[in-house]
Design goal:
By secondary structure, the chain is mainly β. The chain is built from no helices and eleven strands.
Length: 118
């Protein structure tokens, strides 16, 4: 069973940057969709960004122009570059890979905490 491990979270001041990584323990070449979600305390888990194997990306309106999702050439690591961070970006960030868009399952990572505060 392939596992996903997120890293790169932490505490950062408003306006700062972080780069999250999501590394797979095995091949995820059959997973054509990679996504980052986030969940703030007391709120639902929301989609932040998506990238397909064809390179198409989509972003939540709240992060457009600030966040960039990418996937390495081998396809086994997914990144989320986060710039101009705001306090409202504070949440636990999760990566998910799946075969197709809309698949309710797929593989989830354990999450990494991002806190934006002065």
């Amino acid at each position: 069973q392939v596992q996903l491990v997120e890293s790169g979270g932490g505490l950062v001041q408003p306006g700062g940057s972080l780069r999250l990584s999501c590394a797979a323990s095995g091949s995820i070449s059959s997973m054509h969709v990679s996504e980052w979600y986030r969940q703030a305390p007391g709120k639902q888990r929301d989609l932040v960004a998506r990238i397909t194997s064809g390179g198409t990306t989509n972003y939540a309106d709240s992060v457009k122009g600030r966040f960039t999702i990418s996937r390495d050439h081998a396809g086994n690591t997914v990144y989320l570059q986060m710039n101009s961070l705001k306090p409202e970006d504070t949440a636990v960030y999760y990566c998910n890979v799946k075969r197709v868009i809309g698949d309710p399952g797929g593989i989830w990572g354990q999450g990494t905490q991002v806190t934006v505060s002065s």
